[in-house]
Design goal:
Elements (H helix, E strand, L loop, with lengths): L3 E8 L5 H14 L5 E8 L6 E8 L2 H6 L6 H11 L8 E6 L5
Antiparallel strand pairs: 1-3, 1-4, 2-3
Helix pairs in contact: 1-3
Length: 101
């Protein structure tokens, strides 16, 4: 089975950076799912306040079954983070691992 990376890239308003960073520990503790191998948040080098969340799933089926809306506290935290973002900066990518089969 091929792994899947789901990546979400966005910018946070500079004045709201501290609020965003203080939300990350709880966000990381709440994100879990069957087949989710890892979840990390990165800041783009040379571009302050630009972040990328990376979800690594064991298979496309695990990615397809992922639903962060199942956890009410997680949904509330994601909604809060949405208010910290610069409008129209969110980009999504789904990458599927290439195998030799």
């Amino acid at each position: 089975m091929s792994k899947v990376i789901f990546a979400v890239q966005y910018e946070i308003e500079a004045a709201k950076r501290d609020v965003y960073l203080s939300s990350l520990p709880e966000l990381k503790s709440l994100i879990s799912a069957e087949g989710l191998e890892s979840y990390s948040v990165f800041e783009l080098k040379g571009k302050p306040n630009s972040f990328e969340e990376m979800f690594v799933f064991s298979s496309y089926e695990a990615y397809d079954a992922y639903d962060d809306a199942e956890n009410e506290r997680l949904s509330m935290l994601i909604s809060k983070i949405e208010t910290l973002k610069v409008n129209n900066t969110t980009k999504y990518n789904v990458l599927t691992e290439v195998t030799s089969n």
